[in-house]
Write a structure and sequence with these properties.
Helix content: 25-40%
Strand content: 5-15%
Number of strands: 13
CATH architecture of the largest domain: 3-Layer(aba) Sandwich
Shape: globular
Strand order of the largest sheet: 1-9-8-5-4-2-3
Radius of gyration: 21 Å
Number of helices: 12
CATH superfamily of the largest domain: Type I PLP-dependent aspartate aminotransferase-like (Major domain)
CATH class of the largest domain: Alpha Beta
Bound molecules: pyridoxal-5'-phosphate
Structural class: alpha/beta
Largest sheet: 7 strands, mixed
CATH topology of the largest domain: Aspartate Aminotransferase, domain 2
């Protein structure tokens, strides 16, 4: 009995609820931009204490739409070097130039210093990413820095459904928050994304962009360079049902993380990325840094081969400035990003993880650490 890297949790009752919803959607023929999308938007906004939510086809679309409403065409957008391809990809799609910044190694997020180092008069926006679900306590200082320069702060909250800092939910610290419902994320709709914001203007613009830039749902005049970024009603129903489990999933994931924190504290040189005071992560990922010089591939291979414990993908194993596609945007070395990408591992955290599974991971990591890093 091994431990998988990930598990997508829809219990029998949720599967039945989705099946009923799909049957209703097919019977009515309201397949897109209908009542389930509205339900999903309202529930998601409420869950995150936001005034407005706009559902879109993916997390990448959510980011691109926000950046298009800001108008980053021909200007620079600061993104951390430690993030998924899509954060910087969305900047390119929106016509902007990604500027890759270093991160704080204790939170894996941008810091005021690393952002300040790359700001220029051409900076149009800063995108903060909550890696692994952890919101950096520097978020207030980052917001203040952006405000002082009149630059919008955008959150790529693709990892952070239900996370908070100082009681404040992810997605509410800047102009807008962009979430993803890709299958591996803490809440999924199959495919999908969500924008949350306090700005009614941004909400209205986002609704225009997601539906081919049409001025109105029933009209045929196109006022923006939008695209087909709508979420289907089928996906909205899946997401609405899954979102109801968010609190329970996060509780389970946090229990697992607390046990990992306690167990890993005793392992020399293995440094967990732990929550600073006031931070409440959803533990999309549990990140730990291997001691320098330990071969990550061998560590993972040994865990799988000898203990049947599979680690999930890193967040991330390569900083963006080392990704071939971003070679044109490579600048000075980004030492913290390079180091945390090279040394990190992600222990499995499942939304329905059992105590036995958690124990198994702890025993396996302890044994392999003793052998390869002790
Ligand atoms: C998953 C993810 C995205 C993109 O989401 P999609 O729904 O796959 O488009 C963007 N940013 C980060 C950090 C992600 O992890």
């Amino acid at each position: 009995m091994g431990v998988p890297a990930a598990r997508i949790v829809f219990d029998e009752s949720d599967r039945a609820t989705v099946a009923d919803a799909v049957s209703e959607i097919l019977a009515t023929g309201a397949l897109t931009l209908g009542p389930w999308t509205e339900r999903f938007e309202q529930a998601f906004a409420t869950e995150h204490g936001a005034s407005h939510a706009v559902a879109v086809a993916s997390g990448t679309a959510a980011l691109e739409v926000v950046l298009r409403t800001i108008g980053v065409q021909g200007r620079e957008v600061v993104v951390p070097a430690v993030t998924f391809y899509a954060t910087a990809g969305a900047v390119l799609h929106a016509g902007g130039r990604p500027v890759l910044a270093d991160v704080d190694p204790t939170t894996l997020a941008l810091s005021p210093q690393s952002v300040e180092a790359v700001l220029t008069p051409a900076t149009a926006a800063v995108v903060l990413v909550h890696i692994g679900g952890l919101i950096t306590p520097a978020v207030d200082a980052l917001r203040a820095l952006c405000d002082a320069r009149g630059i919008p702060l955008v959150e790529d909250a693709a990892h952070a459904h239900g996370s908070s800092y100082a009681g404040r939910p992810a997605g509410t610290f800047g102009l807008a928050g962009a979430f993803s419902f890709y299958p591996t994320k803490v809440v999924t709709s199959g495919e999908g994304g969500m924008i949350i914001t306090e700005s009614p203007e941004l909400r209205d613009e986002a609704r225009i962009y997601r539906d081919q830039g049409k001025g109105a749902f029933t009209a045929n005049h196109h006022v923006r360079e939008g695209a087909s970024w709508r979420l289907s009603e089928l996906n909205a129903a899946v997401g609405t049902v899954h979102l109801r489990r968010l609190k329970e999933f996060v509780e389970t994931r946090r229990r697992v993380a607390a046990r990992y924190d306690a167990a890993l504290a005793g392992l020399d040189g293995l440094t967990a990325v732990t929550e600073p005071a006031g931070v409440r992560s959803n533990y999309y990922k549990y990140v730990a840094l291997l001691p320098p010089g330990v071969d990550r591939a061998e560590f993972k291979r040994t865990l799988a081969a000898e203990h049947d414990v599979r680690l999930s993908g890193e967040v991330y194993d390569l900083p963006l400035h080392h990704q071939p596609v971003f070679a044109p945007y490579r600048g000075a070395p980004l030492p913290a990003a390079e180091d945390v990408c090279a040394r990190q591992i992600c222990l499995p955290v499942l939304s329905d993880m059992t105590e036995d599974e958690t124990d198994r991971v702890i025993e396996a990591v302890t044994a392999v650490h003793r052998r390869l890093a002790g």
